[in-house]
Design a protein that fits this description.
alpha+beta, 143 residues, Glycoprotein, Type 4 Pilin, single chain, 3 helices, N_methyl_site
């Protein structure tokens, strides 16, 4: 009589665990990169809300004293920004940076800056010093 084998051998189980470990070692860093990209976009969205009010101040010719976080409806910090700052418009209508955020998030992006600059002609430009264009939202340029 032959004996039937039931179940898995120890070597088969070790091979499965090794394969799962290899896949996890690839997937976790890739996942963290996408988390970082999302956090940069969230930080940009947090400061984007202030552009409309800022632009209204510029068009109305408001004095520099109104260009505050409270004035444009932003908080000093958000879930995505450890610090948000606002700079008053220059006499020529430009501001670099007009609204900026120090990003908080994964180690690769923590402490990096994302900001909006206002040009003399009234256009807004997103700029950032994040380590790679992978993390930067579409249309953002390097500082």
């Amino acid at each position: 009589m032959s004996q039937l084998s039931k179940g898995f051998t120890l070597i088969e189980l070790i091979i499965v665990v090794a394969i799962i470990g290899i896949l996890a070692s690839i997937a976790v860093p890739a996942y963290m990169d996408y988390i970082g990209k999302t956090q940069v976009s969230a930080a940009l969205a947090d400061i984007r809300a202030g552009i409309t009010k800022y632009e209204l101040f510029v068009v109305s010719g408001e004095p520099a004293a109104v260009y505050t976080l409270e004035g444009i409806g932003l908080s000093a910090s958000t879930n995505s920004c450890s610090s948000v700052t606002v700079t008053a418009v220059n006499s020529d209508g430009s501001a670099e940076p007009a609204i900026s955020c120090i990003i908080q998030g994964t180690p690769k992006i923590k402490g990096k800056i994302i900001r909006y600059d206002r040009a003399v002609n009234g256009t807004w430009q997103c700029k950032s010093n994040v380590i790679s264009t992978f993390y930067s939202p579409f249309g953002c340029t390097a500082i």
